[in-house]
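Summary for the lay section of the report: proteins are chains of building blocks that fold into shapes. Here we show the chain for ATP synthase subunit b and then a coded description of the shape we predicted for it.
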Amino acid sequence: MEYKEMVVSFLVLMFFVCGVIIFVIHRALISSTDGAVKRLNDEIAKASAKQAELSNKIKKADEELAKRQAEARDLANKMRSDAEQASKEEREKIIAKARAESEEIIAKAQNAKETIRREIQKEMDAKAVNFSMKILNEILTQKAKGVLNDILVNEFLENLRNTDMSRISPDIQTVDIITLNGLDEKSKTQMAAILKEKLNRQLPLNISTDTNLGGGIILKFGSMTLDGSIKNLIREKGIVLQEQLQ
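The coded shape description reads as follows.
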């Protein structure tokens, strides 16, 4: 009987001990599982945060890349535009330079042509005047030349009264007079009186003759000349007629 009670007591005790052990093991397992789950959740949270951070960095990197690509495209477009503009400006400079050079060449050619034309015209005028003088000398007698000369001298003296002599320098000390065959006393007196009235001083008259003058008179005040010769009259009349014909 005692043996059975001992067995029962042992079994109860074992059952109790086993229950305690099982409870302890269960609690340990649960605690271990909860810890593992918590640690796993922590790791997942950390991984998620890391993933979020990485995603954010990737997003920023993509945005930065897109920005740099846009800047690179803008820079490339600007460089291409600048190159095209520079090329256009260079072409315009070349065209402008070529145009200016061509205009300069044309202008020089026109000036050269005009210079040659004036020289030819001048030579032709001189030849025409000399030819006219030759004809006059051939057809006019000495008497007729004398009469023509007196008329031209008298007309010159009349015109001299209305001539502005304010530009004649006060440094001029003498007057050179060139005529066909000199001046008579009356003409000399008139000349001296007119010059004194115009210049407010008396100037000596230095008279000389030139048989090629054809007639008329020339006054020289230093470098200034008043030409009343028939030769000059023919030249001036020829210029007027040329202008009328043009």
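Put simply, here is one thing we learned. The chain has a mean pLDDT of 74.
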